Amino acid sequence: MTGTPEHPAATPDACDDQGRRHGPWTDPDAHGGVMVGDYVDGLRHGRWRHLSANGRLRSQGDYLDGELDGEWTWYRSNGRMMQRGRFRRGAKHGTWERWNSASEPLDRGSYDDDRKTGEWYSLNPDGSVKRVTRHTPRSR
């Protein structure tokens, strides 16, 4: 059976000889949708897509050895972008941006290992800066 990005084909959902998930899989979510991607040695790896029950793309991004890693993007039910940001080994890291349902910017800033850092900008609908909040970097 063939599929489209919105409606994936059935995946083999196979396990390796040690009983670990391996290869293409479709995992159901608690809301009737599915997560579609690959497992390597029992861990999510590479590009995964989260689809709603009606096949609409809800989010997509990468996993590395079972952890969110790289850029992820979330979409609203109207198909417009809701937020986009990066992860490093499961933690928010780098620039994050959010938009309202009319695709107007809400805010943007950076994370350092799951903690807001530096200047965060609350934005007006036209993208101009409404307010700046400064977050202290984490001590190491």
Description of the structure:
- The chain has 140 residues and is an all-beta fold.
- Helices cover 0% and strands 60% of the residues.
- The protein is built from no helices and 11 strands.
- It has strands at residues 14-15, 21-28, 34-40, 43-51, 57-64, 67-75, 81-88, 91-99, 105-112, 115-123, 129-135.
- Strands 1-2-3-4-5-6-7-8-9-10-11 form an 11-stranded antiparallel beta sheet, with no helix packed on it.
- Strand 3 and strand 4 form a beta hairpin.
- The radius of gyration is 18 Å and the shape is flat.
- It starts with 13 loop residues before the first strand and ends in a 5-residue tail after the last strand.
- Mean pLDDT is 92; it is low at 1-7.
Q: Helices and strands, in N-to-C order?
A: EEEEEEEEEEE
Mean pLDDT: 92
Number of helices: 0
Distance between the termini: 52 Å
Percent of residues in beta strands? over 45%
**Ranges with pLDDT <50 over ≥5 residues?**
1-7
| Helical content (DSSP H or I, runs of 4+) | under 10%
